[in-house]
Amino acid sequence: MKRFWTEVAVTPERGVLLDGRPVRTPGRLPLALPTDALAALVADEWRAVEGAIDPRAMPMTGLANAAIERVAADRASFAGALARYAESDLLCYRAESPPELVARQADAWDPPLAWTRARYDVGFVVATGIVHQPQPPATLARIGEAVAAFDPFALAALSPITTLTGSIVLALAIVEGALSPDEVWRAATVDEAWQAERWGEDAQAAALLAARRREFDAAVRFLGAC
User: Fold this and answer.
1) 144-198 pLDDT per residue, tens
2) Selected residue with higher pLDDT from 88 and 199
């Protein structure tokens, strides 16, 4: 579908209007945002459309649609699925060798785990290799409670942050302001950075990593505006 509107406006209820007509989700639900900042971000995406609509260029709208249609419909189940990342969090699975990579992982991953321990009074079991290591039930329950407390819009943003980093710990650290987005991204890509330094940068891998970073940044912007 090509652009058919001239004016974009935001209503007092934080809906988005195209030439006076309300924007709706793909399921025809009202696209109403929880904050002025988020409504402005979504409206700016519609203002920026030139020619055909490309959903890939409108991540704020896409996340808002997900929050309204998918997350709000069953917030508890969505939060529970997200919290289950604590069962196999990236930060808990370490390399056995070489020593340089082991040290890098420890430097990047031990501080977030220590912060989580202090913030939520939980402990994670750290293992080497890829064999699944069960985490304490109390830890999983506490992380589940923390994630369940977020509203649908925050959960919609937390989902890509968690899946792209492989870590609910890092996602929570962003929400709480314990780590900056750049710090989280560096922690999440320790292995990729080490591989590139050791073997040289692969163009295809670099392009995929850059695409992941753009999606991550969009989710962080969305979360900050919630």
Assistant:
1) 999 999 999 999 999 999 999 999 999 999 999 999 999 999 999 999 999 999 9
2) 88
The SS3 of residue 8 is: strand
Q: Are 56 and 47 in contact (CB under 8 A)?
A: no
Distance CA 82, CA 76 (A): 10
One-letter amino acid of 196: A
Cβ atoms of 70 and 150 closer than 8 Å: no
Between the alpha carbon of residue 92 and those of residues 24, 34, 105, 128, the distances in Å are: 41, 35, 10, 8
Span 153-162, pLDDT tens digits? 999 999 999 9
**Burial (CB count <10 Å: 0-12, 13-18, 19+), residue 43:** buried
Secondary structure (3-state) at 52: strand
Encoded tokens for 12 = 């007092």
| Residues in CB range of 41: below 8 A, 6 or more apart | 60, 221, 222, 225
pLDDT of residue 64: 98
Pairing of strands 21-22, 16-18: antiparallel
pLDDT in tens, 72-129: 999 999 999 999 999 999 999 999 999 999 999 999 999 999 999 999 999 999 999 8
